[in-house]
Amino acid sequence: MNPQAKLIFISSLLLGTAITTSSNHWVMAWAGLEINTLAILPLISKSHHPRAIEAATKYFLTQATASALVLFSSMTNAWHTGQWDITQLSHPTSSLILTSAISMKLGLVPFHFWFPEVLQGSPLSTGLLLSTIMKFPPITLLYMTSSSLNPTLLTILAILSAAIGGWMGLNQTQIRKILAFSSISHLGWMAIIIIYNPKLTLMNFYLYTMMTAAIFLTLNSIKVLKLSSLMTAWTKVPSMNAMLLLTLLSLAGLPPLTGFLPKWLIIQELTKQEMIPAATLMSLLSLLSLFFYLRLAYCTTITLPPHTTNHMKQWRTNKPTNILIATLTTMSIILLPISPMILTIV
């Protein structure tokens, strides 16, 4: 892709995100979401492969529908209350429509079908943007309207997302699809707590973004897309493969790694809100996700694949050290001991 064109698209992404997160008016927030959608489409389809074009088409149709629902929700609320302020979403029908629209934008169950397909058809660099930056504006809208949302509906969506995200990731061999279902599962953890402790949702999202960025950048560096190629990747950069193992376990939420912190605090908050059955169910459903994370981690450790592979083994390729990958990976592993400081910052 032309560097000038890529600069324009990345700048538009940042502009759309900034407009949505900083606006108080529904029309401005909607405009920011539309800028984001239009800016990411060329990045998805830049390879001109039929799979990439299909992914871009699916993404456009889904996001356009969700944006129309956001606008319809805000107009319904303005019709009944006379308010265009995002924080004044007081009409119950508008709240219900907005929850559905944001769920569609994020990929929460039952509006999740587009996300694994779009991520599978995108390059790893674009997949990183789809899994992190593109989730931020919708989560910001949920954060600003959290006091008006329906807790029962969000809890049901969250539990379904954790269940489907873990269940459907079990039989995948494509790493991008596994990370897509991982994202759906993590979004369930964010959705269940946003009404009771919105700041905890933001902290969960920041930590998830950091760990996902570390994994995507590492996979992009060692050029791995499938489990079969992950089994032979240890010969390229052995140290990076070892760090990928720890980052995957952190994303799974195993103590004493960083990813354990948000799950721990969310379960604690749900217990305080006397939602013990929901907390128990979310904890049990996280075991499904843990299984495919462990499978990925296992594939990074074995030195010989269990079956004949067509991949040529590369021996110690000379790659320059990437400071960003090293920093993100280290933070994804060792932040748990300084968690009190993270909580005071958030």
TrEMBL record:
InterPro entries: Complex_I_Subunit_2, NADH_DH_su2_C, NADH_UbQ_OxRdtase_chain2, ND/Mrp_TM. It catalyses: a ubiquinone + NADH + 5 H(+)(in) = a ubiquinol + NAD(+) + 4 H(+)(out). It is found in: Mitochondrion inner membrane. Coiled coil: none annotated. Its main location: mitochondrion. Belongs to the complex I subunit 2 family. Core subunit of the mitochondrial membrane respiratory chain NADH dehydrogenase (Complex I) which catalyzes electron transfer from NADH through the respiratory chain, using ubiquinone as an electron acceptor. Essential for the catalytic activity and assembly of complex I. This is NADH-ubiquinone oxidoreductase chain 2. It comes from Eophona personata.
